[in-house]
Structure formats: structure tokens, C-alpha cells
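Let us walk through a complete example step by step. Step one is to write down the protein sequence. Step two is to encode the small molecule, flavin-adenine dinucleotide, as a SMILES string so that its atoms and bonds are unambiguous. Step three, shown after the inputs, is the structure prediction itself.
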Amino acid sequence: MDFDLIVVGGGSGGVRAARMAATYGAKVAVIEADRVGGTCVIRGCIPKKLFVYAARFSKIFEIAGSYGWTVDAQFDWPTLVANKDKEIARLEAAYEAAVEKPGGTIIRDRAIVTGPNSVRLQKAGREITGRYLLIATGGHPYVPSLPGCELGITSNEAFHLKQLPHSILIDGGGYVAAEFATIFAGLGVHTTVVYRGRGMLRGFDEDLRAGFDAGLEARGVRRIYETTIRKLEKSGDDIVAHFSDGVDAPFGAVMFATGRRANTGGLGLEAAGVALNPDGSVPVDNYSRTNVPSIYAVGDVTGRLQLTPLAVREGWYVAETLFNNNPMSVDLSLVGTAVFAEPEVATIGLSEADAATHGDIDVYVARFRPMLNTLSPVPERMLMKLITEANDGRVLGLHILGPGAAELVQIAAIPMGMGARKADFDRAMAMHPTAGEELVTFKSPSYRYRGGVKV
Ligand SMILES: Cc1cc2nc3c(=O)[nH]c(=O)nc-3n(C[C@H](O)[C@H](O)[C@H](O)COP(=O)(O)OP(=O)(O)OC[C@H]3O[C@@H](n4cnc5c(N)ncnc54)[C@H](O)[C@@H]3O)c2cc1C
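Step three: the predicted structure of the complex.
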């Protein structure tokens, strides 16, 4: 064999697996067809959050006057894009070093799996062999095939627009749609969301969804629900969207944020005997192993939770299992997740609706104006919801809407993972004045569920 481990895909999961395997002395190759770093670094979490920061200045400028500042603010999109690209290039180099420093090799090519232990390099036109193969090819945006769909962009292109459109229509209701809606709106683009469902962020706690929807309204983001796009047509510089309710409207740009699909097309997995799910993702066991014993898969390509920390953890654990004699499986039972939109949303554990079907629960809710807003005319409120088991007070869910939501939920994930009770939260001394002190000063429940009924 040429290598102990051949990793196909140099994104979050692949790079971590390669780095750890090389650290344990394995001979490792990472094959990457595009830029090392993958979705998260090049066209996902990182550039997205930099754009979110840019968009949030509009709110800061809105409040600034109440604090005595006079701000003459101008925004220059090319400056943001160029500075973002510089930072992405720095991170890309860091990811390359993470593979190469412990002794791994990066091969810049497209890989096609040809057997349980072999991969063909498309450009180089040669085959290499490995004791184990790790498929970490991630996913790509799914675009519905409707007439004129080629006129739309996806999140991939949104990071490289030459100029900001005067208006944008975003098709989708998930976190990518939510985040880009508030990025564009915050940067001054007239923004409309069209979504086939009844509200954005399906699966999140209903109060968070309602609060988020109100936040979009306050930011001037138009939402058209229970509607789809039938057709797109070019009209001068604009794109006309024809909606399922018969209405037509022109937009400066149209973005599809309609989900993602696994990158398995043309990868050769079927020929190597690897079973695929109907949606093209790769089914794996708790140790990220496919049905072919020498082939593993991690990250978005497996169709599990599509989040960077999971891809990283899965990749690391494959290296532990194969090269450190330490089999480890990833626990997906308590995974926090955030929507870096405006207002920010973060959540961990059970939603109120889910928790109520599991047994008797107490629900603690706080709604308050974040202190930063109090001098300003901005009326927006923050929402915190803590859900506990009625009997022993075990914390089952935490849902936050507002500034710093993700940072708060990240920290609360530690006691929740340890099985913390409400009494443990209560024991913590409040830090004042903070938003987070609400979590440790809840007195009696706002309401309860007994036998599945709200009382
Ligand atoms: C807009 C956006 C925002 C996001 N924001 C967040 C966030 O805030 N927080 C979060 O946790 N997650 C976020 N995600 C999700 C996160 O980016 C992914 O979960 C993560 O990148 C998955 O890592 P991965 O290793 O599975 O795949 P990827 O990072 O996608 O890496 C796969 C790599 O494989 C390469 N590849 C594919 N096929 C081949 C082949 N045949 N040969 C060679 N190379 C190949 C690709 O070029 C790519 O570099 C976001 C995603 C998007 C799109």
C-alpha cells in the first residue's frame, strides 16, 4: 500500500482526521480537488460570520446616536470581500500546515474511488492505494430544477458578488437562508424571503421561531410563506420571479438556500461496493465505518448533522479508532446549534413541544430588552427559555434569541452535558449586569406541562 490512510476531501473532517492520524505515525495523503479548508473555511461558517459582523454594524450605528455618537457611515462591499478573502487565505494556509507539519501529504487533484483500497487521481491519471480510505467530500448546495434556475446564485457565489444587488430574493427557510437574509438586509439590500413552509427555522422551539420572525419584520425583511418559485426570467438587469400564487416580481438577484446534497456523484463509491442512501449520502456506523470495512466516511457526506464541529470530531475519532488503538464513537445526543442571524438564535436540547411529549416539565421564560438597547428607541427584546424535568429539575432544553445567544448556549452545554439540574444553575452566583444572569435567577416556572397538557 502507498499509504495507511487516504483522505478524500480536505475540509473540516478530512483535515482533522489526517492531522491526527499523521500525529499517531500513520502515512497519510489528503486529496483535495479545490481549496484546502473545505466548506467551513472557504465558503461557509467563517466567511459567513465575517459578513454577519459586517451587517451588524448597521444596528450599532442605529443605536450609536442614543449614546451620544454622530456617525457618518459608508459601506464599501469590495473592501469587505477583499479583506474576507485575505483572512480565508490565511486560514487555508493554516489548514495546509495542519496536514503537512505532522508529515501528511496534500495531493491537489480530484479523486475517484476504484476499490476498497484504491483511488484514481483524475488529473494525474494514476492510481494510489491505501490500507484505509476516508471519504470526507462534504456537500454542495441543492438548486431546485425550475425554469431559469441558472439565473440564481447559491451561498457559494454570494461570497464573491462583484457588487451588492439593490434587492434580493432568498428561497429557503433554514439557517443559511436566515443568515443571508439578515446579512443582505443589514448591508442595505432590500431583502425578501420566499419559503414553502409556514415560517423559517423549522425544528427550532416555536417561541424562538416567532421571535425570529418578528426580528426579520423589524429589520424590513419581507417574508412570503407557503409559496414557491415557479420560474425565473431575465428582464434587463433584473430577474423576475414567478411565484406559485400567481404573483410576479423583479429582484436584483435571487439566491437559492434550499438545502445541500452529499458530494458522492461520480465518486465511484458504488463501484467499490459502498452502499449509499437514496439522497446520495453515505450511511455509516457509530465509528463512521461504511459497509466496506476499509472505507470510512465523516462529515456532511454522511448525512448526519451538518455542522463543522461534528465533522471535526468524527474525523478525529476515526484516527483514534484506526491508528491509536482507541475506538471512539461520536455522541450526537446533545448538540448545540446556532443561527448567526439578526437576531441571533441558539438552542440545545429539547424544544418545548418535544419535551412536553417526554414527561412532566417546567418551563422558565424571560423576555427583556437587552441593556444595550435601553438608551435607544430599538424596542427589540431578548428571549431565554429553560426547560426542566418537573420531578428532579434536570435541564432538558435551553433556547435563546438575542445578542450573544450562541456564546451563552455554548457555555450552558457544559453543565447540561453533565446532567445539571435547575438547582445547579441556581447555585451559580449571578454576574451583574449581564444577560446571562437571567439563566441563574429564574424563580418559579412561567408555566408547566402535566400529562402533556400546559397548565
Ligand atoms: C453558508 C454555510 C454556512 C455554514 N455555517 C456553519 C456554521 O456557522 N457552523 C457550523 O458548524 N457549520 C456551518 N456550516 C456547515 C459546515 O460548513 C459543514 O458542516 C462542514 O464544512 C462539513 O465539513 P466536511 O469535512 O464534511 O466537508 P467540507 O468542509 O465540505 O469539505 C469537503 C471537501 O472535499 C472536497 N472534495 C469533494 N469531492 C472531492 C473529490 N472527489 N476529490 C477530492 N476532493 C473532493 C471539496 O472540495 C471540499 O474541500 C455552514 C455551511 C454553509 C454552506
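Step four is interpretation. The first strand starts at residue 3 and ends at 8.
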